[in-house]
């Protein structure tokens, strides 16, 4: 891997996947850029999946942000495929919540 | 070889397709290549082409500044859209959009080093071979800067033009953003560019949060951006100026007023 490739990958990890801020960068600006990228991705999500945004209402933003930070979009994966993964994550989360609730009732 | 005079235009988006068709004073449009299929083309673009309105194909995902090889399918798609709309030219950005297997989804700045310039030049030359029309490259808006720049942004772009024979797409809103966020001097930046290679200009709106200017394309064009356009126009008569709006679309009258404001600066 070239030096440039490694340095670009390091910056991208810092911006998308909570990686460490690479040497020499202003940490505040890296945070600002990371927030801007997340907002753009959230905006695309809301446009492509208005159904999810409508169903979740106020919960859309925190849930999407939590998921997005843990699941940076992989190269070659379309926005739609990425959002299908978000929808599956939401379903799994709901299933777990239902199980927890029914578990409580059985106690 | 020269490029055509384009006039004043607006970015065609499917959400405002009818608006773009009926707005007065639209001499040309630009289409985001990633957002359309070349076959069938959206009907609205066929209507505009039928009227003889030039359509420039603009790409955002080639990652020409990426150290990893450019995806030939993305170049092929841009080429196909360009042919479908009979584009006089295509454009992309001086940026990268991913690395290490992750896609940033948006344009990230390059380190302004010789190494990064060499990589960019290699990728641009390869893309040019597969594109049917001239390629113009655009300065981006950045919130952060790499620590080890060897060249100013203007010199970086000037050398890119010298080595690849590409054209320039100067985004005056991005220049304003970098002036606010990174301390770029617009006058010096413009002085360093080979403006005889200017293909066209982008104008867009944004918003300031604290110390940072965000180039959102979802707010009105602030007067400061038109001032930078004026500074550019005092040096060269741009062949084209295009308004970009990507979200929070205002009433048609507001877009018409922004186009008129642009035209007033250009014809001053």
From TrEMBL, chain A:
Cited Pfam families: SCO6045_C
Name the record gives this protein: SCO6045-like C-terminal domain-containing protein
Residue ranges annotated for the SCO6045-like C-terminal domain, each copy included: 5-91
UniProtKB/TrEMBL annotation, chain B:
Molecular function in Gene Ontology: endonuclease activity
Keyword Cytoplasm applies: no
This protein's record includes keyword Hydrolase: yes
Keywords attached to this entry: Endonuclease, Hydrolase, Nuclease
Gene3D superfamilies in UniProt: Divalent-metal-dependent TIM barrel enzymes
Cited InterPro entries: MbnB/TglH/ChrH, Xyl_isomerase-like_sf
Cited PANTHER family: UPF0276 PROTEIN HI_1600
Protein name in the entry: Endonuclease
The organism of origin for this protein: Actinophytocola xanthii
